[in-house]
Amino acid sequence: MTPGGAAYWTRIAFLFLVRSGRATAALSVMVITAVAALIFLSALAVGVKDAMLRNTVGLFSGHVTGYDLPDSIQTQDLVVQGVDAVLKRVYLPGVLTGGRLSQPMLLCGIDPEQETAHTALKMKISEGRYPLTGQREILVSRDVAQTLGARVGDRLRFSFQTGGGFLEYSVSGLYHTGLDALDREMAFCPLETMPDKGVPWSAAIFLTGGVTADAILNLYRQHWPEPVRFESWETQMPDLRQLIDLEAISMAIVIFLVFGVVAIGIACSFVIFIIRNMREYGIMRAMGVTTAEISALIVAKVTLMNLVACSVGLLIGMVAVLVVAHTGGIDISAFTSHNRYFAVSGVIIPRLTAFSLWAPPATSLLFSLLAAVWPAVMVARKKAADILRLI
To answer: Under the phi-then-psi rule, with left for phi > 0, alpha for psi from -120 to 50, and beta for the rest, what region is 163?
Structure first.
């Protein structure tokens, strides 16, 4: 470019923006608000995804489930980098009887101490407690207790589906999750009280933050081929996977729609600026400034304003997310009491990711550059003589 290259025209663009201080400030506030709000909303959407996943897999199932595991595989064998805990469980089908009433039931043998430490089922115990290790006690759902007419302390009989034997258990507590698979089909007792030894067992595998289930699945499948089977939460809960993907798509659409509207506002405002300052552009054209340089000046003005506004909006959005995250998040329990994906807690903690942090400012910059096309074309199409005749 003539008189001084890119640095020169950037300085001129800056002076144009400073001279139109109030208009520049108004447009900047629009961009700052949009960027900050969408960074916060994107981080909040990530927090909703985290909350749904935390509530669902943290309640009982874990991120990865192992099936039909032989005694040759121990829980410590499954502890690899990225695995927080491996909980052993043994399932036996049968019938649970209280008095003259009975109900088909899947008895799950657990390690009460491990379950208490790593699952959230303890938070759903409405009466009583977890069974104690080594004690002939059973934890049943409130719905099953009502069906059998049982209360905490009563004795129930569990009859095996195969073998014809039975065991008696004392009810240690009642729980209620709102999930039919747990409330109507399962009861829990200490592993030591399970009648059969050497039967295949199942593993609930909980991962540390940032570790994907697929990475762990690949490691397990390399070491233990079929018939040992491992499945991730995505395979077991495809509806949750689709819901998370739908939320991400919806957030991307919102970002594009918001900045589409912002870009139209910027384009219209710059057209007004150009019409109002057409004299300056006409003089510049008469002095020999080329059409390309005029267009570059307009693009530089839009870009410079947008970069400053996006930087401020980025900072405000980050601070807002960090403040909310470090003050306990947003509690929406009143609106999720019947939502199975928020069975444990309705607290949402916004979390910044690369997408939530950079998608709003990057989209803003892209649309602002597109917004600069209209005013740049308008000036480029006018001749210097025509502009000066209008003055």
So the answer is: left
Q: What is the domain range of residue 190?
A: 71-199
pLDDT for res 1: 44
The residues, any chain, with a CB within 8 Å of residue 223's CB and separated by 6 or more, are none
Task: Provide the sign of the torsion angle of the four alpha carbons 207, 209, 212, 218, taken in this order.
Answer: negative
- Domain contains 231: no
| pLDDT number for residue 100 | 85
Residue 384 has a pLDDT of: 61
Q: Is 258 in the same domain as 384?
A: yes
Give the gyration radius of the chain's Cα atoms. Answer: 32
Looking at the structure, tell me whether residues 11 and 103 fall in a common domain: no
CA 299 – CA 302 distance, rounded (Å): 5
Q: How far apart are CA 52 and CA 55, in angstroms?
A: 5
Task: Return the closest-CA partner of residue 173 out of 118, 117, 116, 92.
Answer: 116
Together in a domain, 179 and 293: no
**Which pTM value belongs to this model?**
0.77
Tell me whether strands 83-98 and 125-128 are parallel, antiparallel or unpaired.
unpaired
Are the C-beta atoms of residues 125 and 131 closer than 8 Å to each other?
Answer: no
Structural domains of the chain, count: 2
Domain contains 364: yes
Residue ranges in the chain modelled with pLDDT below 50? 1-2
Q: Are residues 386 and 335 both part of a single domain?
A: yes
Classified as helix, coil or strand, 248 is: helix
**Count of alpha carbons within 13 angstroms of residue 327, beta-carbon side:** 8
CA distance 156 to 141: 13
Query: Do residues 263 and 385 share a domain?
Result: yes
pLDDT recorded at residue 12:
77
